[in-house]
Specification:
Blueprint (H helix, E strand, L loop, with lengths): L9 H7 L7 E4 L6 H10 L4 E6 L2 H10 L7 E5 L5 H7 L5 E7 L4 H4 L26 H7 L2 H12 L4 H14 L5 H11 L2 H4 L7 H12 L1 H15 E11 L2 H14 L20 E3 L9 H6 L7 E7 L1
Parallel strand pairs: 1-2, 1-4, 2-3, 4-5
Antiparallel strand pairs: 5-7, 6-7
Helix pairs in contact: 7-8, 7-11, 8-9, 12-13
Amino acid sequence: MKQEHIPVLLAEVVKYLNLKKGSVIIDCTLGGAGHAKAILRAIKPSGFLLGIDQDEMAINRAKKELSSFSQQIKLVKDSFTNLDEILMRDGFQKVDGVLFDLGVSSFQFDFPERGFSYRFDAPLDMRMDTSQKLTACDVVNTYSKDELTSLISQYGEEKWASRIASFVVETRRRRMIQTTFELVDIIKEAIPASARRKGGHPAKRTFQAIRIEVNGELDSLEKGLRSAIRWLKTGGRLVVISYQSLEDRIVKNIFKDYSKGCICPPEMPICVCGRKPITKILTKKPIKPSEGEKERNPRSKSAKLRVAEKS
């Protein structure tokens, strides 16, 4: 069941971070530590990497994977939404590069008991940080029909959101919904058979929506990206890999916002706002995995990489 961790778009990450010996890099989503290991090889012996992950299992695994670089790293169990606090606490100044590899890591999917996957029967959990209180079980069993409809529609972009929410609420009147397969069965019952035959697994979008809600992923992403840009040196790079449209839209919009110069109305004869671009977008279109990479690592199929450089 467990698979070897294969970092997505690894060569592209190393290239666009513009790594040099002595670079200071922040890996905000340590995960299986595949990207971190390649970064450390490129910046040794004088470089330094701070690895952040809110999953304690990921931190413990990374300690073993990166043990030969113990003098060049510090690993922190925390969320990148707290990036400002983490870097101030540890006495960082400006940094040369920041990496975000978003979504659920293959490491988390490979442990069915974490409840992230609709392909394995497990308790409804989906917490990236297992010390937090809110679980997928809480969301499914306590949110109102309107709340469930809203989050499944917004975060899952699921056209059958209202019907799925109705079936969930009707089921939990009879019994508590406790496992992933129980939820999958409800979703399959709610979505008409003709719609289930296309577009991949019928539970994919609903599971994505609940996971995003449980972990507050989109709000954390926006805050984390803005913090990362503040901490970059002039010429420093921010590299972000996203796996679904909601994440990619946030990344794209923030990059676009920070790359704007003057925002005065067109009728103004001269600029009075004085706004200067903070970043330069290096990827006008997102970079996607090659066909070869997608064949070797099916989990990379939806990946999109965007890069911005601090002006």
